[in-house]
Design a protein that fits this description.
The protein is of the alpha/beta class. The chain contains nine helices and 23 strands. The chain has two domains: 135 residues, 3-Layer(bba) Sandwich (FAD/NAD(P)-binding domain), CATH 3.50.50; 162 residues, FAD/NAD(P)-binding domain (3-Layer(bba) Sandwich). Helices cover 28% and strands 28% of the residues. It has a six-stranded mixed sheet, with no helix packed on it. Strands 13-12-11-17 form a four-stranded parallel sheet. Strands 6-7-8 form a three-stranded antiparallel sheet, with no helix packed on it. It is globular. Its cofactor is FAD. Keywords: FAD, Flavoprotein, Oxidoreductase.
Amino acid sequence: MKNLVILGGGYGGMRILLRLLPNHLPEDVQITLIDKNPYHCLKTEYYALAAGTISDHHIRVSFPEHPRLHSKFGEVTSVNLDKKEVVINEEEIVPYDDLIIGLGCEDKYHNVPGANEYTYSIQSIDQSRDAYQKLNNLNADATVAIVGAGLSGVELASELRESRKDLNIKLFDRGKHILASFPERLSSYVERWFTEHGVEIINGANITKVEPNVVYNHDQPFDCDVIVWTAGIQPNKIVRDLPVEKDAQGRVVLTTQHYIPNYEDTFVVGDCASLPHAPSAQLAEAQAEQIVQVLQKKWNEEPLPESFPPFKLKGVLGSLGKKQGFGLVNDRPLMGRVPRLLKSGVLWMYKYHNG
């Protein structure tokens, strides 16, 4: 029996499971899923969990069940590509015939002293729970600093404003405008929303140091009760330690068929893969679809696809609390109620089809 091992039940890993099960897995193949949690987590909603506007069970989806799907819950501590082995919790060895690495990303602290030690994160469900406890136990008029005003930082700041209208929220961003990758018209709309709702935006920020309850911007100290870091991501440490070619962001360079060069049995999906788009749940799922095609050809001993059509991503949607939102759909900027409704609908559809 061949063993397909999937590291990480995120958006890419989940899509692969749902495409292979229940009826498209060859009789001589079993799947071993390895994840820290016994459920799939909706990472795109961690900001709301941290802000306290949704409960934990709203962002959990059960993994599929199948006689030849075996789950192991623990932490991946190493991967040996030459021996074709994965080690869990530093002791249990899991051999594989084919491997899919979908371990996701971690915060990138840009060598800022104290950032790792003295800030909270929303990169994992455990970290988001910790942030929730800290943020929602704050006294009235406490100050929260959010470092980084990309999509995660903006959604966290807006959701936290709705959850805790009494808090002083400071949003630090390196650029002249928040959401630098979006059109200026859209960025300006979001900035106006923050101004109207009493969230202070500090543009041109350069965080030089973090100490307990103090964030230094251009070496100027700002006293805070909680600091949340949303200023960049990097691949999981297991992936960073792999002795394979990486791109400038530390993501694994892959062949057209999404496997590691010289390791035709090892695929990388999602945030750890070097792809022509920024990491996203959409991208991980689109890549997973292609990996399934490659696996099925391989198992049937057929020639692998020589190429794939370009990924077709529908766009990006972000929330400004529960009533307003923003987004880019087919390169068209959307602002106000409609993108927020669209985002809620996308989330409902995902849970309906995957849960």
